[in-house]
Amino acid sequence: MATMKAAIFVEKNRIVLDDKPIPEVGPLDALIRITTTTICGTDVHILRGEYPVAIGLTIGHEPVGVIERLGSQVRGFVEGQRVIAGAITPSGQSYACLCGCGSQDGPETRHGFKAIGGWKFGNTLDGCQAEYVLVPDALANLCPIPDGLSDEQVLMCPDIMSTGFSGAERGEIAIGDTVAVFALGPIGLCAVAGARLKGATRIIGVDAVPERMSVARQLGATDIVNFNDGDVVEQIMALTDGRGVDVSIEALGTQGTFESALRVLRPGGRLSSLGVYSSDLRIPLGAFAAGLGDYSIVSTLCPGGKERMRRLMGVVQSGAVDLSPLVTHRFKLDDIEAAYELFAHQRDGVMKVAITP
């Protein structure tokens, strides 16, 4: 049986490179030879045991590659074609998809479906930090890469760009809005770019890492609040003359950032939550105005499917957004354990790493 190299979850705090069989291709599947992938903050949650997955699972959910083999019923694609697939791989036929929520497309019962079901790569199915990945429901999920775009130019589309933009979309940002983005990691930076595209005219980024603050300004942030300079809520309220922001986007996943994002909202404002939380959240009585402040709190699992990927690559191709500064480090798949060590500890100014077999 032919084998491939893959990054495998072994136990808490251990993801190792090992050999696994190359997947068999079913009628609706496509086997993709990975040319570039990356590590996500969610993968670090898995590494630390904060998000449970099966022992032996291949990690990773951001694939860029070339079609190696097509299932017998997959039409409209050819072997050797460059493609991406979203981190979320909806079937297009489930209850979730047919009620307009393809990101939640997962195992169903007669009672419905479970949350986060659409995230399969590196969660319920083997992922793409490997030499090959099997894409399910390929007709709904494969998207050709436009000519002229490099792997790194589209590397953010499967998850980071889709998630950050979705935070802006779910926040229902309107032209002229003031927006605060809490935490300028890769997803927060994409949320800044998405807020600008949606029409926000004042975008306040919150962080303390100089490199991230610099990239945030490149992507559209008009103001930067450094949390080392004092109380973040006070700084933002001062910037907005006490009014607060129309929309806040929480992109870290901690009680502190969630609470601050709520406290800076104007009455009737909207908190768009992108963080992956590893403990219970508390909503403070005062910050929530005892339930009388007309606030909205929404969460997002990034949309997937080929149409979402087509649109995002169209944005990149148009030049409206350049996310190339987010790729700060490059590793071979053979060195992925070192890449995890760097990324998990956020050393050396790392934002995103490109992994190439």
TrEMBL record:
Tell me which UniProt keywords the record has, alphabetically: Metal-binding, Oxidoreductase, Zinc
Can you tell which superkingdom this protein's organism belongs to?
A: Bacteria
Q: Which cofactor does it need?
A: Zn(2+)
Entry's PROSITE patterns? ADH_ZINC
Annotated Enoyl reductase (ER) domain ranges read: 12-355
Q: According to its UniProt record, which protein family does this protein belong to? A: Belongs to the zinc-containing alcohol dehydrogenase family.
This protein's name: NAD(P)-dependent alcohol dehydrogenase
**Organism name:** Pseudomonas iridis
Q: What is the lineage of its organism?
A: Bacteria, Pseudomonadati, Pseudomonadota, Gammaproteobacteria, Pseudomonadales
